[in-house]
Write a structure and sequence with these properties.
Rossmann fold, six-stranded mixed sheet, four-stranded parallel sheet, binds pyridoxal-5'-phosphate
Length: 399
């Protein structure tokens, strides 16, 4: 059973990873965040809490997720490639690992109402699912533009009993959904628990969500040691806010021989519209945290672009900003076009249709220098079912 332990990469007591992170929020939100921090401290190493989490992760989510040796793509690139199959989780992605733990925490603390923000709808669906399971009231904030382009996920959330609020402000996407969720929380903190979907937001969220996703790397480390008798040379994952990546990397960061590589959304290209907060952004403040941000000269947040809604975010979790500057993790990017090629490639070579997000990590196999004979793990953060309608519009097969 997995229980987190203290790590050298834990933030300081105000939630700072180096100069990043923190709690840049209106005063009215501080009592709720301090209370949440207390609550998190009380369960972080609590065996009873983690036993309950473990039970649901096994029997409801289907963990441990397999570490699969992808022989066909390995032969093609001349390396040994293993895929960590988070796509096989119930609800189709890694998001549920975090939501089940936060949901159980809310339940334990006696909250009856849950709110969450969502972009493509994956975190919204995971949250609606767990609220159905745990008998909690659920309200989801989603940009109006995303509501329109992710019709099926909106229907799923409603089917599961959640209320979905279409957010009409700003660019009507994830950034604005999160603004509105925070705004709602400020006036309802007494009976409402806010489940954030990635390692962003004010302290303690980045640390809490990272602990809840660290099960991915914990399992992968044991699985690769069992299968290969050694640690991998490289571990790859895609980065939106950065939760599947940090969850995967967490248990490899102290191994000097392992290089962790986070893949940002290169969108239309590095000098065009993209989601490369680290490569193209500067430190700034958004959603209560200091991190790298895509912004203009006045510090106004720019719109990100990625073909995958889950990577379409102008910021990045503060812990990644720290690892970037500290060089504990390497970062690179993959464009929309390269990701789509990898989406088809993995489907045809291995019979595995990845999420557009995960296809970014897969695509990096074709860009990576010195890949020959290396042992590589790639986190397949989710499955492609949610992307079928969009894929059908983009891809045309002449049969
Ligand atoms: C949400 C999502 C992502 C991006 O979020 P991270 O916090 O960066 O992991 C990646 N892949 C899938 C399948 C997602 O649903």
């Amino acid at each position: 059973m997995y229980i987190p332990s203290e790590s050298q990469f834990d933030p300081d007591q105000n939630g700072h990873f180096g100069i990043f992170g923190g709690r840049y929020v209106p005063e009215t939100l501080m009592p709720a965040l301090l209370k949440l921090e207390e609550e998190y401290k009380s369960i972080r190493f609590d065996k009873e809490f983690w036993t309950e989490v473990d039970g649901y992760l096994r029997d409801y989510v289907g963990r441990p997720s397999p570490l699969y040796f992808a022989k066909n793509i390995s032969d093609e690139v001349g390396a040994k490639v293993y895929l960590k199959r988070e796509d096989l989780n119930h609800t189709g992605a890694h998001k549920v690992n975090n939501v089940i733990a936060q949901g159980l925490m809310a339940k334990r603390l006696g909250y009856k109402k849950i709110i969450a923000e969502t972009g493509a709808g994956q975190h919204g669906v995971a949250t609606a699912t767990i609220c159905a399971l745990l008998d909690l009231e659920c309200e989801i904030f989603m940009g109006a533009k995303d509501v329109a382009r992710q019709e099926l996920n909106v229907f799923r959330m409603k089917l599961l009993g959640a209320k979905v609020n279409a957010v009409e402000s700003g660019s009507k996407t994830l950034k604005d959904a999160m603004n509105d969720a925070i705004r709602h929380w400020v006036t309802n903190t007494r009976d409402t628990f806010y489940i954030i979907g990635t390692i962003a937001g004010p302290h303690p969220y980045p640390m809490m969500v990272r602990d809840f996703q660290a099960i991915i790397g914990y399992e992968a480390r044991a699985q690769i040691l069992q299968k290969e008798g050694r640690l991998p040379d490289h571990v790859l994952a895609c980065i939106g806010g950065g939760s599947n990546a940090i969850g995967m990397f967490q248990h490899f960061l102290e191994d000097k021989e392992v290089e962790c590589i986070g893949i940002e959304a290169g969108g239309l290209g590095i000098d065009s519209k993209n989601g490369c907060s680290l490569k193209k952004g500067r430190p700034g403040i958004l959603h209560g945290q200091m991190s790298y941000l895509l912004q203009d000269g006045d510090g106004q947040v720019l719109e990100a672009h990625s073909i995958s809604a889950g990577l379409d975010y102008p910021g990045i979790g503060p812990e990644h900003a720290f690892h970037h500057d500290n060089k504990t993790i390497s970062y690179d990017y993959v464009t929309d076009e390269e990701a789509m090629d990898a989406f088809v490639w993995l489907s045809r070579k291995e019979g595995i249709i990845p999420a557009f997000e995960s296809a970014h990590a897969i695509a990096y196999l074709k860009k990576m220098p010195n890949i020959k004979d290396k042992l590589i793990i790639i986190n397949v953060s989710g499955r492609g079912d949610k992307d079928m309608i969009q894929a059908k519009e983009i891809l045309h097969f002449n049969d």
